[in-house]
Each structure stands twice: as C-alpha cells, then as structure tokens.
Amino acid sequence: MTVFNTGLMSVTFRKLSLEDIVQLAADAGLGKISWSGDVHVVPGDDSQADRARELCAAAGIGIEGYGSYWRADGTPIDSIAATASRLGAPRIRVWAGSTGSAETSDADRIRIALCIASAADHAAARGIALHLEFHRNTLTDTAESTLALLSDIAAAREVEGQPVRSYWQPRPGIADAPALAELELLKGQVDALHVFSWQSDGSRLPLGELSAAWRGRLDALSHGGAQEIDLMLEFVAEDTPQQLLRDARELHSWLAGVQGRHTSKDAIHG
C-alpha cells in the first residue's frame, strides 16, 4: 500500500516569514514543506537556504522539495541546484516550457526535452531529482503529453539514476472521471500532488468541499502507485492560516479513512 505524507507548499503564504511557515506546518501536523524559490528561498541566497533547513530540522519537519520557476528555456540551472542542495531538498520542481502541448512545435518539444535531460543530469550529480509541474500552458498539460515527454527525457539522459518524474494537480473544475483517468495513466510516475479544491472559474474552496473527489483519488493512488506520495496543501481559501489548519485536519481525516479501509480489507483476506 502506498504511504502518503502530508505537507505544505510555502508559496501558499508568500507574505509569511520562514519561521511562520515552519510554525504553521507544525501546528497543522504536516510533515513536510516545499520551499518556494521566488520568495522564501531565492536561488543563490545561502542564508535563506541555511535558515529554512535549520528551522525544519529543529521542528522535525522534512523538506519535500524546492519549487523553482525554471522553464527549460536554456537558462542554466546551476544556481537553483546549488541552493536546493544547500537546502537539503531531494527534488527540484521545474516547468516544461511555456506553451501547451497542442501549441508546441516538434522542434521545441525536442529542445525542451533535451534541456530538461541536461538539467536532470546536472542535478543528479548533487543527488537531486527533477520533477515536472503538471500544469496548463506547458508540455505537461495532459497525461499523454507528460508521459511522452518523460520518455523523451529518459532517452536523452547521460546519467543513470534520479529519474525525472511528475507532480499532479487538478485543473480547476475537472470532473471526477477525467481526473481518475489522468492519475491512472500517470500511476507510478507521480510522487507528489498539489492538494486544493477549486471551482471551474478558479475561485478557491475549503478543501472539504470536494471531499468525495479527493477521497476517490487517494483510494486510486493507494493501489499500484508510487511507494510514497507527498500530498502538498496549496491555494487555501482566503489565503488564511486558519483555513490551512482546517484543510490539514480534513486531509488527515481522509488518510485515516484510506488506511482504515485497507486495514479492513487485509483483515478480510488475511
């Protein structure tokens, strides 16, 4: 059975300090933090990276990854990788270009794949893996395009180990069946999810408003997915710490339910 870990993406609260982010995660019972590279731990800022690492260690909170805004555009990833290493992040979150799969030419798709492969080799030398955002207006806007890109990247790699993998997040308003179909296609390639509840117009809801959908996704991932999957809370309604605490309680209740259902099944079949 898949082990689910819970965490917080620091970008959810851009205005909070490093200390406040760590305290909030601890108060919410979240075991990991993904640190944002655009505000909390800026590439090249060793003091921020050191402080974030030390605060997490003191609070007993793990570091899920380092959220970069690198878009496979030829920009060197050296500074990002160095900061991720100093932070102690096992993965760097990157973006697969800036255009959707339907709008990207074959030549640009090849260029992006080669760029990510080269960056992945560079990061692997530091023991860090690259993980792709699953996002609109990139080459990971569909499960099919994501799988094709991951295959192209793997074929272009020169370094073994630290394979490039993918995140997953729901598009605003996505129905249950398409979401489950995406997760089924990507099963085994996804190590982390962005967890939030949005309406189709992008407005944010308390996480529990889409409880049935999320419970179904977690049930699906608990069979035959990655051995461990990080569930990272993001985009809370009204951007308030209070809502994050409520969302964390909701998430933990789902996971208790998933565990309980599997325990019952094991007892029946044991």
What are the defining features of this structure?
8-stranded parallel β-barrel, TIM Barrel, two-stranded antiparallel sheet, alpha/beta, Xyl_isomerase-like_TIM-brl, 8 helices, 44% helix, TIM barrel protein, 270 residues
Walk me through this protein's architecture.
With 270 residues, the protein is α/β, with parallel strands linked by helices. It has a single domain (3-269), classed as Alpha-Beta Barrel (TIM Barrel). It is built from eight helices and ten strands. The chain has helices at residues 18-27, 46-59, 78-87, 106-124, 143-156, 176-186, 211-221, 241-269, and strands spanning 3-9, 32-36, 62-67, 91-94, 129-132, 165-168, 190-195, 197-198, 204-205, 228-233. The strands form two sheets. The protein has an eight-stranded parallel barrel with strand order 1-2-3-4-5-6-7-10, surrounded by five helices. Strand 1 (3-9), helix 1 and strand 2 (32-36) form a beta-alpha-beta unit. The longest helix has 29 residues, at 241-269. Mean pLDDT is 95; it is low at 266-270. InterPro entries: IolE/XylAMocC-like, Xyl_isomerase-like_sf, Xyl_isomerase-like_TIM-brl. Pfam families: AP_endonuc_2. Residues 23-239 form the Xylose isomerase-like TIM barrel domain. This is TIM barrel protein.
